[in-house]
Structures are given as structure tokens and as C-alpha cells.
């Protein structure tokens, strides 16, 4: 069964089309990973789906109902974790959850029960009486997530929930997302950390410049580029000149330079290891060279020409 269906969505800001005829479906019970570089349109898509902004055209159905016509009912069954942490600093963790639970119509014993369950679920039971000002970034994030979970939404939408937090909290969050899925919740998960998608997503949608450019399971996406070879090269002194020379080798599709390291993607069968080595040696010393199997990161690179690591920020 489909939990959400976005068809032919267009959203413009001024003259630029931020979402350009986007089609996305979310199946019940899946964790759909939404990947895309900066400015791809992920947040705009998520905010459209959560009913926070109106699209210019297209149709959005959530729980089989037209979104804008049934906005308040649908919103009450969605949990949105925004990119920015939105908790009240002058309320304790428990009071924050009571507030958000109240907004969603929970009252009395039911509210109390859900607040306690949610605090336990995100591992903040022992911090229930503290103000978030005393929390680490990761704990604040977990509280933020808890606020979106307290009303037991059927669909949870998360916009990069693990950016800028410690590894322990990140693992806790990923583990919690798996548990939510096991309990039957559907999750749309946006991130630029490929390894997170690889770890938890049932299916992946890749966006770039307002378009969906690929979708499938991680295995399916990697399978699509199995016809490519990747040579990893490290030299003593990398230069743009070397990158240009590598790019000229027959069969080379793409060269990505990161300082002294180069990833060279070629068509399969081009046997470019030797040629890459020769070119690299002609410009200086070679530290290491090897052929690697493509990963989801390479799928992303091949599709968008961009690396998600551009914005690695923790
Ligand atoms: N309110 C707005 N007014 C004008 N332009 C906007 C607005 N919101 C987003 N944009 C533009 O739309 C494009 C897509 O932005 P969006 O935030 O959806 O991308 P994103 O994929 O979520 O990127 P990021 O990973 O950086 O959050 C960007 O070029 C952005 O500048």
C-alpha cells in the first residue's frame, strides 16, 4: 500500500524551478532514503509533503487523501523532524514532549503514557527534568525527534537528523529509526551521509537540481554502474594539470580530485590502471594506486558529478 504519492510536482521560487515535475511514492513500512547535494530540492520536497508549503502544480496524496483538502487530519498523522532543532529551551525535556503531545490532541493519562514511552525510546528518561540548555547537540536532536514522535505518527519525515552530532547519538538515532520501522512506521529519511542510507534505507531516491535522477534499492543502484571501473590514485603532489591529463585517457568518464587523491572512473574493459599509472608517474611520485568496486557514493558521483562529502560537517 502507498502511504504517500507525489505526482508531477512543480515548485518555483521566482524564476527557478526548485521542484521540476517530481514523482515520488512512499510504500507503507519502508524507510525511503532521500539523497541529494546542496540545493537539490530535498527540504522543499519534504516541506511540500508535510503541508508546510504549497506547490505550484501537481498532486500530493497522503494516506490516500488529497493533502491540501485534508491538511489538518493528515498533519496529525505525520511527524516532521526539521533540519533545525526546534525545542523550547525554557521547558524541560518532559515539558517539551507534553507541549507537543498537547498540540496533537493528546490529553490526561494517554499524554502521560506517551511522553514517558517516547522519552524512554530516545534514551532521555534520566534527563526528563532537565532543560535542553544542559544537553549536548546529540541529546537536543534526540529530544527534537521525540517531539515529532510523541503522537505516534504513521509517517515520519526526517530532514538530515544526524548532521553535526556525536557518533553515539547518531547510532542511537539510526537504531531508533530501525525500531520505528519494525513497529510498522513509514519513514522518509533525508541525509547526505551515504553510509546511513546504506545502513537503513529500504529504497533510495536520488535528487539533483529539482529532479529525481535515480531510484531503487542500494543494490539496484550500484548494479547500474557495475559496468564502470574506479581507480583510486594517490600522488605526492596533486595538481589540476594531472587531473586534466587523466581526464584525456581513453575511456575515462570522470576524474574527481581531492588534494593529492584522485578517483578515476572509466568504462569497463578500458584497462586503465596501467595508463593512469603512466600518466601519474610522468608528473611526479605515486604513493598508491588500486582498483575499487563501485559504491553508492560512486553512483551518486556518476549521476550528479558531485560528491556528498563536499558538505561533511562533523
Ligand atoms: N523560501 C525560498 N525562497 C527562495 N528560494 C528558496 C527558498 N527555499 C529554497 N530555495 C532554493 O531552492 C533550492 C532548493 O533548496 P532546498 O533547501 O530544497 O534544497 P536541499 O536539497 O534541501 O538542500 P540542503 O541539503 O542544502 O538543505 C535552493 O536553490 C534554494 O536556494
Descriptive account of the structure:
The protein is α/β, with parallel strands linked by helices and 314 residues long. 35% of the residues lie in helices and 30% in strands. The chain has eleven helices and 14 strands. The strands form three sheets. The protein has a six-stranded mixed sheet, sandwiched between helices. A four-stranded antiparallel sheet has the order 2-1-4-5, covered by helices on one side. Helix 3 crosses helix 4, helix 3 packs parallel to helix 5 and helix 5 (137-149) packs parallel to helix 6 (167-182). The longest helix is centred in the middle third of the chain and has 16 residues, at 167-182. The two termini are 37 Å apart. The model is unreliable at 310-314 (pLDDT under 50). It binds adenosine-5'-triphosphate. GO terms for molecular function: ATP binding. Keywords: ATP-binding, Nucleotide-binding, Transport. Residues 4-234 form the ABC transporter domain.
